[in-house]
Amino acid sequence: MTDALRFPAEWEPQSAILIAWPTAVTDWADRLGEVEETYILLVAAITRFQRVLICVADEDVEAYARARLASARVDMQRVGFIEVPYDDTWLRDTGPVTLQAMHEDAASDFRLLDFRFTGWGGKFEASRDDRLVEELFARGIFQRSARQDIDFALEGGAIETDGEGTLLTTWTCLHERHPEATRAELEVKLSRHLAQQRVLWLDHGYLEGDDTDAHIDTLARFAARDAIVYQACDDQNDSHYAPLQAMAAELAALRTVEGQPYRLFPLPWPAPVIDYDRRLAASYANFLIINGAVLMPAYDASTDDEAAAVLAAAFPEREIIQVPCRPLIWQNGSLHCITMQLPQGVV
Question: In CATH, what number does 5-343 get?
Answer without folding.
Answer: 3.75.10.10
